[in-house]
Amino acid sequence: MASVTLSGVTKIYPGGFRAVSRVDLDVADGEFVVFVGPSGCGKSTTLRMIAGLESATEGSIAIGGRIVNDVEPRDRNIAMVFQSYALYPHMTVRDNLAFGLKLRKEPRADIERKVAQAARTLDIGELLDRKPAALSGGQRQRVALGRALVRDPAVFLFDEPLSNLDAKMRVQMRAEISRLHQRLGATMIYVTHDQTEAMTMGQRLVVMHQGEVQQVDAPLALYERPANLFVGGFIGSPAMNFLDGRIVRRDGLRFVTDGPQRLSAPLPADWRPRGAPVETLLDRPLTLGIRPEHVRLREAGAADAFPAVVQLVEPLGNETLLYFTVAGRMFVVRSPGGVEAGVDRQVGLALAGERAHFFDPETGRSLTV
Ligand SMILES: Nc1ncnc2c1ncn2[C@@H]1O[C@H](COP(=O)(O)OP(=O)(O)OP(=O)(O)O)[C@@H](O)[C@H]1O
Ligand SMILES: [Mg+2]
Fold this sequence. Notes:
Layout: E1 4-12, E2 18-27, E3 32-36, H1 43-51, E4 58-63, E5 66-67, E6 78-81, H2 93-103, H3 108-122, H4 137-149, E7 155-159, H5 167-184, E8 187-192, H6 195-201, E9 204-209, E10 212-217, H7 219-224, H8 229-234, E11 241-249, E12 253-256, E13 264-266, E14 286-290, E15 295-299, E16 306-309, E17 312-315, E18 319-326, E19 329-336, E20 346-351, E21 357-359
Parallel strand pairs: 3-8, 3-9, 6-7, 7-8
Antiparallel strand pairs: 1-2, 1-4, 4-5, 9-10, 11-12, 11-14, 12-13, 14-21, 15-20, 16-20, 17-18, 18-19
Magnesium ion binds near residues 44 and 159.
């Protein structure tokens, strides 16, 4: 097992495209860290630089305290699992598992023991004599995982390993990889664009956007204290609602927007924003961010609410999502399962002010972290 340290790691591809910019990160020995961000943000490039499949243009990469920038991939003591399982189609599962060890000329008895152990861990003992074509997607992914496991690497690297699986299998394999991490105590770095996967698996998440790290923190800390607009909007589903406006003192505190569809939403009178005294937030341009679960449904005309008309109802059983247009923007509210709210109904929406986030619209930075 080993720590992984990135210092100022940058990738500029031939042709000049800057895919990854000055990434600094310490992954502790035994930690499970997830890189998450939208397509093209540089997740795979970063992982491939750690693996040695791509060179870093600038900066240093250390594994277990040793700088590995000039070390060949096979000598970095890492194992990588990809989305495409990359199994050898003409070999049985057993031979697929053993292949890397045979290449390393390990003794036959050791190979057999390691293969048997990995098969037990991943519950694929029954499949050892089959070829990949005769396996389901989930089974193939388990074999790919097994191939990493038998190598007993210092660091496991995963690049979207579950995205070929159906939703149910994905949830199951997610739990298996998490269990594997608990059991092995291995250092794992996992890449995904799926924020649910990231939130449920990672001890810490690295949120990336356009080649830059936006925030590094534990899943709930990211949810509760997003450092900027991007993280606020990316973490959480359905996404955080955003409104542009300002806070004024008028019958208590209110968030108001300009424009034709003016909004005036009450904030709690005793509201104390996190991170800044309320005075510093008054009468300046702000972007308010509020999660769908932090808006309460009220009767139309309720004093602590602003009026809105239901446009779309999505009953999901355990919860109901209600869609509105507020100040010209889509606005989603998450309500309890059985809530009765038909389309076109007039309701009141109350912001749970203490859960509201306020961002600087210029820089995107949170003013209430
Ligand atoms: N070999 C290459 N040459 C030039 N540009 C590249 C190369 N590989 C990747 N890129 C670009 O670098 C950026 C980051 O790519 P990367 O594969 O790291 O993204 P990603 O975050 O893994 O995205 P995805 O979720 O789609 O896999 C993208 O804009 C991509 O087009
Ligand atoms: Mg990728």
